[in-house]
Amino acid sequence: MKTLRMLTLFSTFFGIFSCTQAQKKTDEADAQPRQVQKTDAEWKKELTPEQYNVLRKEGTERPFSSPLNANKKKGIYVCAACQTPLFSSEAKFESGTGWPSFYKPLYAKNVDEKTDRSLGMARTEVLCHVCGGHLGHVFDDGPKPTGLRYCMNGVALNFKPKE
């Protein structure tokens, strides 16, 4: 019984510590000014209504609605708002969820992660580091080698084929 209490206490502490560390990373990322800063009116003018809803208002596109979900070409996926390179086709996989999925970003520094508590649960939101655009969420049910599934909205991405 004493061992069970110690394990519960340890797991509670570890959970709080992990959340605190994740929140610290988020707070530091939010404190840094974005390299691309535009007004709401400028974003509305430059993006399609669906892109604006996803990238600037944290919306979600309908599953299986993006042609990028079935894209099998070699190349790079970039932010639709600022063209920052985000994911390689090499890391793309078929998750069956209806959204383009990747097991790792092209460059970790190009994406930020933030705790999202909407919908009554805690998820990890993925944002473009350069413009702050909402890209999707990352989950821990992906394939090897990372075990991660970056589940991205196709309208938040543009595809640049390999030349």
TrEMBL record:
Reaction equations catalysed: L-methionyl-[protein] + [thioredoxin]-disulfide + H2O = L-methionyl-(R)-S-oxide-[protein] + [thioredoxin]-dithiol
Residues in the signal sequence: 1-22
One CC-aspect GO term: cytoplasm
Binding site for Zn(2+): C79, C82, C128, C131
Cofactor note: Binds 1 zinc ion per subunit. The zinc ion is important for the structural integrity of the protein.
Keywords carried by this UniProt record: Metal-binding, Oxidoreductase, Signal, Zinc
Lineage: superkingdom: Bacteria
Uppermost EC category: oxidoreductase
Start and end residues of each MsrB domain: 40-162
SUPFAM superfamilies, per database record: Mss4-like
Heme listed as a keyword: no
Keyword Zinc: yes
Active-site residues from the entry: C151 (nucleophile)
InterPro entries, per database record: Met_Sox_Rdtase_MsrB, Met_Sox_Rdtase_MsrB_dom, Mss4-like_sf
Needed co-factor(s): Zn(2+)
One function term, GO molecular function aspect: zinc ion binding
Family: Belongs to the MsrB Met sulfoxide reductase family.
NCBIfam families, A to Z: peptide-methionine (R)-S-oxide reductase MsrB (TIGR00357)
Record protein name field: Peptide methionine sulfoxide reductase MsrB
Protein source organism: Salmonirosea aquatica
Designated gene of the protein: msrB
